[in-house]
UniProtKB/TrEMBL annotation:
UniProt-recorded name of the protein: Protein translocase subunit SecY
Subcellular location: Cell membrane; Membrane
UniProt keyword terms in alphabetical order: Cell membrane, Membrane, Protein transport, Translocation, Transmembrane, Transmembrane helix, Transport
Superkingdom, taxonomy of origin: Bacteria
Record-linked InterPro entries: SecY, SecY/SEC61-alpha, SecY_CS, SecY_dom_sf
GO CC term (a single one): plasma membrane
Main location: membrane
Entry function: The central subunit of the protein translocation channel SecYEG. Consists of two halves formed by TMs 1-5 and 6-10. These two domains form a lateral gate at the front which open onto the bilayer between TMs 2 and 7, and are clamped together by SecE at the back. The channel is closed by both a pore ring composed of hydrophobic SecY resides and a short helix (helix 2A) on the extracellular side of the membrane which forms a plug. The plug probably moves laterally to allow the channel to open. The ring and the pore may move independently.
Membrane topology type: Multi-pass membrane protein
Transmembrane segments: 31-52, 64-80, 168-186, 209-230, 237-255, 291-309, 343-369, 389-411, 443-465, 471-495
Gene3D superfamilies cross-referenced by the UniProt entry: SecY subunit domain
Transport keyword on record: yes
Length: 514
């Protein structure tokens, strides 16, 4: 019996042990430990030889271990709370807020930032201020500010300067967001939703309140700057994109809690009885057929996301022939790839964030009118309901708008056409210059339409699942939707970078068939 068979046997035994632990009300930590160990051992039993090869290369092995260490530091800081905050009261407040639109927005922002707004920790803001600063700098360098556009075209030196500007811009954005968070947490709870009143006795007025507010703002800002530094260290010394890996780690870390709330009865600690019953699930429970449908949708979404993430429209290009002496250069046929999902997940983030504004607006009008304006209350309720037709319709429209907007500022057909012309290449059937730029723009508009449709379907899948299967949105978002899109996109990028190290040393890549 070889080591693979031993790992496979140990993995199956551990998975059975975890299932028995959950079924008979054993300790939750023991059940999850056995389940995770069993899954890891089972995967190790089936793992291809290429995956084991990455640990035979010293440099690659060192990069992977450094990346894991930095991610572990991030996860440790995730559980370090802010001082002078009543954490028990905070958890109670956020549990009540989860049922409203505010709680859904906080969960969504935490999902994409790698932070934890539902728990006052030093990484509450996550990496979102840095992402916001990056978006602002990218928009300004796309023709709005000529000096920044000039830096963007200078190559590596210009990119380093833009990164430095992004770091400096992150700090004031951090301070502004930290002040808003601290003010909301510390402001007395008057019942109008303006504050939470979480300051303990002795720190809720006077100098102590102001001093705590100052230290909390500095702590939150330093936490985000530390995350930014961790991401840059992963970029330099680890493997993969550091910021993306931090966001991915935050999403993946929430999956056990989502699975636990879906399958485990919080009162008894056992698997819910409805899991083994056909048609027995109602409300917070889930029946066997719903679990099968959810698993099928998960696999379908994963396959679809991988296919659309790697999909591209290849435009043929031809380079002109150059005769130098007796040799002929050029004349080769190549392709200009245009990704179907060129905008990534940014349109979904923009659309979801912007759609919270109508709820705040109509809710404020309804409250200011002393509930006399019924139409404002109705619209506020409709925008609060993520399962309703109005919210999902506006969601799809906003995704299309922001997809075209983001592609327009990141892909310049005229610049691509000029680059092709400068390098002596052309698209067969189209003259270099304006004709080529017009053709690229037409193709871009058609490809972007398909990419926007894909993003819209992925974005509303959690809402459809939670509505039809009666599953909480927080649970459904992990088995479909934008969270899964981020995880798969980052994983594909990580595999591609590992493959580059393997191929460079004449090893087969992870995606090669054995």
């Amino acid at each position: 019996m070889n080591w693979r068979s031993i790992c496979l046997a140990a993995g199956i035994a551990s998975l059975v042990g975890g299932l028995v632990t959950f079924s008979y009300g054993g300790e939750s930590w023991l059940g999850w430990t056995l389940t995770i160990f069993g899954a890891a051992a089972s995967i190790l039993g089936f793992v291809p030889d290429q995956l084991l090869t990455i640990f035979k290369i010293p440099e690659l092995r060192k990069k992977i271990f450094i990346t894991l260490i930095f991610l572990a530091v991030y996860r440790i800081g995730y559980y370090v709370p802010l001082p002078m905050i009543d954490q028990a009261k905070m958890a109670e407040k956020m549990a009540d807020a989860q049922r409203g639109a505010l709680g859904q927005v906080l969960g969504f922002v935490s999902l994409f930032s790698g932070g934890n707004l539902s728990n006052a920790c030093i990484f509450s803001l996550g990496i979102m201020p840095y992402i916001s600063a990056s978006i602002i700098v990218q928009l300004l360098s796309s023709g709005v500010v000529p000096s920044l556009e000039k830096l963007r075209k200078e190559g590596e030196s210009g990119r380093k300067k833009l990164n430095e500007i992004t770091r400096y811009l992150t700090v004031p954005i951090c301070i502004i967001q930290a002040i808003m968070v601290v003010q909301t947490v510390m402001k007395p709870d008057t019942g109008d939703g303006g504050g939470m009143g979480l300051a303990p006795t002795g720190y809720n007025d006077g100098f102590e309140l102001w001093w705590f507010g100052f230290t909390a703002v500095i702590t939150l800002t330093a936490g985000t700057v530390l995350l930014m530094w961790l991401g840059e260290q992963i970029d330099e010394y680890g493997i993969g994109n550091g910021i993306s890996l931090i966001i991915m780690a935050g999403i993946v870390a929430r999956i056990p809690d989502a699975t636990n709330s879906l399958l485990i009865d919080s009162a008894t600690g056992k698997l819910k009885d409805s899991v083994f019953t056909l048609g027995g699930g109602s409300g917070a429970d889930i029946s066997l057929e719903k679990l099968i449908v959810l698993a099928f949708l998960f696999v379908t979404v994963v396959v679809g996301v991988i296919a659309m993430t790697k999909a591209q429209r290849r435009i043929p290009t031809q380079s002109a022939k150059h005769v130098r002496g007796r040799r002929v250069y050029g004349g080769t046929r190549q392709f200009l790839p245009m990704k179907v999902n060129a905008a990534g997940v940014m349109p979904v983030i923009f659309a979801s964030t912007l759609l919270i504004l109508p709820w705040f607006f109509f809710n404020a009008i309804y409250n200011l009118s002393d509930s006399s304006l019924g139409w404002a209350g109705t619209l506020s309720t409709m925008f609060q309901n993520h399962r309703g037709w109005l919210y999902n319709f506006m969601y799809v429209i906003m995704i299309y708008v922001f997809t075209y907007f983001w592609v327009a500022i990141t892909f310049n057909p005229k610049e691509i056409a000029d680059n092709l012309k400068d390098h002596g290449s052309f698209i067969p059937g189209y003259r270099p210059g304006k004709k080529t730029a017009d053709y690229l723009e037409r193709v871009l508009m058609r490809v972007t339409f398909v990419g926007a449709a894909f993003l819209a379907i992925i974005a509303i899948i959690p809402n459809v699942i939670s509505s039809e299967l009666e599953i909480p949105v927080q649970v459904a978002s992990f088995y479909g939707g934008t969270g899964l899109l981020i995880v798969i996109s980052v994983a594909l990028d990580l595999v591609q970078k590992i493959n580059s190290h393997l191929v460079m040393r004449n090893y087969p890549s992870l995606t090669d068939e054995t």
